[in-house]
Amino acid sequence: MSHETSSVRTLIFAFLGLMVLLALTVWGSFINVGAWRATVAVVVAIAKALIVMIFFMHLKGGNRLTWAVAGAGFFWLSILLVLTIGDFVTRVALAPVP
Amino acid sequence: MAESQSLVAHHFSTLEQEHDAETMGMWVFLATEVLFFGGLFSVYTVYRVIFPGAWDAGSRILDLNLGTLNTAVLLGSSLTMALALHAARLGNRRTMVFFLLVTASLGTLFLGVKGFEYYHKYTEHLLPGLGFELPAGMPVQVGLFLRMYFVMTALHAFHLIVGIGLVLVLAVFGWRGKFTPLKHSPVELIGLYWHFVDIVWIFLFPLLYLIDRS
User: What is the pTM of this model?
Assistant: First the structure.
């Protein structure tokens, strides 16, 4: 089969990258960045998830159909989250003034 | 039937086509799992928008050291799972079984630490339903945070228990020589599931443990 396998070296570097990001996100949580806290935490988590998907789950060598299905999963998730949270965030803004 | 013919299932033309179909099927299943957990993540986010103070206070209750340790353990298990697949592709039976057993052990270690955390919460009267009592001065919605914490981590732990079982089955089949460099899809597909469970934790960890430590 033509599926390229990530070399052991690549896999270990991916793991070390994950460890660095873990240290970064734990260390970062002690710094008060105010409203950006959640954004920073989620961005680091997305970076970690991408490393796992690209190197460990072999999306790198995967075909386009696999990319489309994986992308669809996250597209649906974003619809679920954006519409739900958009509703609750705007409800506060539209509350009647007492 | 000759061995060369039985290698490919009868409804596929080539090994390549069979492999692509299997991989896509697993990704479709994982996409439904993303939405399964997505429902809980949206409930979590909605309550966090409504009760930010309680979510901050709730996250400080959780044990950051154990949470960080568990994240490292699970990320390590993803590495060993990937190494097991690498060994399967090269046909190194012993190496593959070794890494599968390490993966299952790291998963079990994660569950042990999680169980210790659960027990600790129980002794502190913070396990909803079993003598639950918040410390004085805590916003009452911290109870909601803890319920979300237990439901989300328990659902994740259940997925991990299933994963450990599957990896152990792989180790047994692998030891008996059922996988070859040409034909080892189960290792690859269960590996995808294992990494997915790891990714769920990658998001659970900051959202539950790291909300407000500053």
Answer: 0.89
